[in-house]
Amino acid sequence: MLKLEHIGIAVKSLEASLPLFEKLLDSPCYKTETVDSEGVNTAFFRKGESKIELLESTTADGVIARFIEKKQEGIHHLAFEVTDIEAEMKRLQGEGFILLSEKPKKGADNKLVCFLHPKSTNGVLVELCQEMPG
Ligand code: ZN
């Protein structure tokens, strides 16, 4: 793993949370993107090396909606950047971690992503992400 790439935060409403995070971080959101396969609208902030990703559900029963129902708004996942996601998935699987998908999926922000089951990571949802070429 190269570094902590971003922290994902589940919010009820991007419209309500965007101005809050712009004030908090004193910098504008630089990108919003809908990821249909995950049922989320995302918004990204950059502070130095680190990014914050806000996640809003696009459906009433999506993963983010269900997360907020159970745990309220807040930190949803930690994302670590890797250079070779398939190799890293294989390594982690070999160490006994549970992957939530067998293949990397296309995520937001031009990334290939794979999540680890929080059951196998002390309750922390971990995302692996690799920058897509091009
Ligand atoms: Zn993420």
Descriptive notes:
Helices cover 23% and strands 38% of the residues. It has three helices and eight strands, in the order βαβββαβαβββ. An eight-stranded mixed sheet has the order 2-3-4-1-5-8-7-6. A hairpin with a 4-residue loop joins strand 6 and strand 7. Bound molecules: zinc ion (ZN). Zinc ion binds next to strand 1 and strand 5.
Please identify the oligomeric state.
Answer: single chain
Number of helices: 3
Low-confidence stretches: none
Give the rounded overall mean pLDDT: 96
* Global morphology: globular
Overall strand count = 8
Report the order of strands and helices: EHEEEHEHEEE
What binds here, in terms of ligands, is: zinc ion
First and last CA, distance: 21 Å
Structural class: alpha+beta
Q: How are the strands of the largest sheet arranged?
A: 2-3-4-1-5-8-7-6
How many whole angstroms does the radius of gyration measure?
15 Å
Question: Descriptors for this entry?
Answer:
single chain, 134 residues, alpha+beta, 3 helices, 23% helix, globular, binds zinc ion
Summarize the model shown:
This protein is α+β, with helices and mostly antiparallel strands.
How are the secondary structure elements laid out?
Layout: E1 3-10, H1 14-25, E2 31-35, E3 40-47, E4 50-57, H2 63-71, E5 74-81, H3 85-94, E6 105-106, E7 111-116, E8 126-131
Parallel strand pairs: 1-4, 5-8
Antiparallel strand pairs: 1-5, 2-3, 3-4, 6-7, 7-8
The structure holds zinc ion (ZN).
Zinc ion (ZN) binds near residues 53 and 127.
